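Minimal example, chain plus flavin-adenine dinucleotide.
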Amino acid sequence: MQRDHDIVIVGGGMVGAALAARLGQAGKRVGLVERGQPPSAPEGDFDLRISSLNARSLDFIEASGATLPAERCCPFRHIEVWNQEGKGHSLFSASDSDLDQFGIFIENRALQHALWQRLEALPTVTCYTGTAPLSTLVSGRARWVELDDGQTLSAALVVGADGARSQLRALAGIDVTTHDYHQRAMIINVETALPQQDVSWQCFTPTGPLAMLPLPGQRASLVWYDHADTTQAREALDDEALKAAIEAAYPERLGAITRIVARASFPIKRQHAKRYIGNRLALIGDAAHVVHPLAGQGLNIGLHDADTLAELILEQRDPGASLALHRFECQRRLANQAMIAATDSFHHLFTGAKPLRQLGDLSLHIAERLPFAKRLMMQQANGFSPFKRR
Ligand SMILES: Cc1cc2nc3c(=O)[nH]c(=O)nc-3n(C[C@H](O)[C@H](O)[C@H](O)COP(=O)(O)OP(=O)(O)OC[C@H]3O[C@@H](n4cnc5c(N)ncnc54)[C@H](O)[C@@H]3O)c2cc1C
């Protein structure tokens, strides 16, 4: 069977579903292809995969018409960063940037579920689940996508939002550059004796950062970066031994751990597609770039790709026009490259040789003492140009 759309999006994760909802909200005929099934509503214990959403991402989600479940979201108003072995310490407060909050922490599943709920209510969006592309080609003013369930879709623009191992990127012959940090991030959801507040903190150590992302109530998501072999040994600990290891390594302010809720670890890699665009094709989100998660920006920059692409599509009669796609690539590659460079330098400044770590310490000192520099950094982290006031 053959179906025509204005835009076909491959990948219904957070980034692809957000773009589909934004375009559907504007009346575009969207086909969303997802190889999995629609996400279920989150309930009970919080999921392990948590993400921060900054101000620009929240604006974009709001423009898509999705409603986030307030009871599963934790707003944060401060970010505190310090160096365990030096004196460098910086506290960033939303009020310094004239904001009520920096953003929220939300489970990936809760965000994806809210977006899919929105898609169900949009009459011009069709979701194709449990299927994936087999091939793609351009003919005339359309790109065709053949699916493995026998259907064929056509659209003026096909968007790859199918994650780091993007099949659409491979089918389009777009190569990537990669870098392995030889580190893993162990994520541990815990319940604590102390209530967590509206501050997210990160303590740099020579083996990698220890981060605390607050969740509603007496809950937190801990991210413990370390060498791959040390992390694997830590993963083998039983709950009591892991509690003791956390309490020994983490700063006292975390308080006692009353329960280990869940844990898992992920390899840390950087990846960047050599091109974001092709003939009637664009890549967004992790399909285009994967950054070190220490600054919590991977999803945010993916949503900013979707925001920029949606704006350009909505300005055009032909959503796949090559001039618009080149503008998309130009704007987003520059911003994403800057984020990759920033997260990379944070990683090397705090886990490199001692002189580099001293430089890292000094940079936190300087950031703390220069309100102008702090403000610029926060505007970048919120996804807005430092030269534009909101
Ligand atoms: C430890 C860790 C912590 C992180 N913390 C943060 C954070 O705090 N803040 C932040 O902004 N980012 C964070 N990130 C990054 C963030 O998780 C990713 O950037 C984000 O999930 C990317 O979303 P995506 O929709 O582009 O890709 P994905 O989430 O990978 O979604 C891709 C979707 O495409 C579907 N798919 C895949 N292949 C196909 C196919 N062939 N056909 C059809 N469908 C397909 C998949 O089923 C999936 O639904 C973190 C990452 C890690 C590893």
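The radius of gyration is 21 Å. The first helix runs from residue 14 to 25.
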